[in-house]
Amino acid sequence: DTLFISNQAGAMGKDVWVLASEPEPETMQLPATPPAGMAHGELPRRAAENLFWAGRYLERAIAALRLLRLTLDPLADSMPAPWTTQRLQALVQTLGRLTANHPGAATQAAPETLPHRFLDLLTDAQHPGGVAFNLQALGQATEAVRERLPEDALHLLTDAPWPPTPADPSEPVERLAVTSQRQLQALLALAGALHDALEHDTGWHFLELGRCIERGQNLGVVLRSLLCDAASPPRLDAALAFCDAMPAFRRHRQQRPETTVALELLLLDQRQPRSLAAQLRAIETHLAALPHGSDGVRLDTAGRLALEATSRLRLLDLTTFTGDQGLDAAALDQFLARGEYLLRALSDTVASIHFQTPAAPHPLLHVPADPP
Length: 372
Fold this sequence. Notes:
Low-confidence stretches: 28-41
Distance between the termini: 15 Å
Mean pLDDT: 82
Number of strands: 2
Shape: globular
Radius of gyration: 25 Å
Largest sheet: 2 strands, antiparallel
């Protein structure tokens, strides 16, 4: 008993051999040949998980920076318009919800303290949901699959202008706007490199699936905050700017009511890359390309969740939300909340199927109990 050694007791071992209980068979079972179009070999669960979350952290940081850019614009204006104050409050509250910060504390803060809060959001890696936190998590996820990434993406990750720096209370708003814009440009370039240069194998589908799920969830959070808050009027302009759909809105707003056109662009128009319909269509495509255990006739749990989310959107009648009284914020909020739930459940299902090991690890040795 005095010579008992175990890793659990703090010992370290090198070149450890575990003897089998029976002789190893002479024949080796070779893996089945992958179907045409599939990547050579199997994708490890850990690599799939890191690619999936790299996509999610990438989109999470992009969404926060896009919204932060919209929020900083009126602050940098020396002659703000009368409607700027209410719009700024709505954007600050939405930014707080998107970055897992308390929205009430931000909206009630004095305007002169907002730049300090935004600087913390950009540079404080200890703030869960902040830009620096998401960029740090993105770097960790991509480092774990570095050998699978294209050279262009690796160069962008190496030269990215986002190392967290201490907050400077004297940082002007204009400097914050420039910093956030540079970070956003670097992330958009990285997203383009990953989409265009990464081999479109199973790992690429996991990466893009994570991006689409995160983009759909972020869209739901932003729309619920900007359009469904009973305490403030709907901010269609900010929602359209967040999704980069303002040019299309200007082309079509003369034909139908503005609220109907905006909701159609944000929710139903698959031609808009950031619309909810575009995300759900891409999710179905990437799910179909993943290895799964279904028999090809019945949908698995992830497929059923994606189908439910897509069917709800395709059957949506926008007149349910628009009428003589204007936008029905409560009905829209209920619809978006259900969509957020389905996307969260879909993400959890993908993780349970593809990332978690089928059996929990168990120790090979047990540390003996201490003598009485």
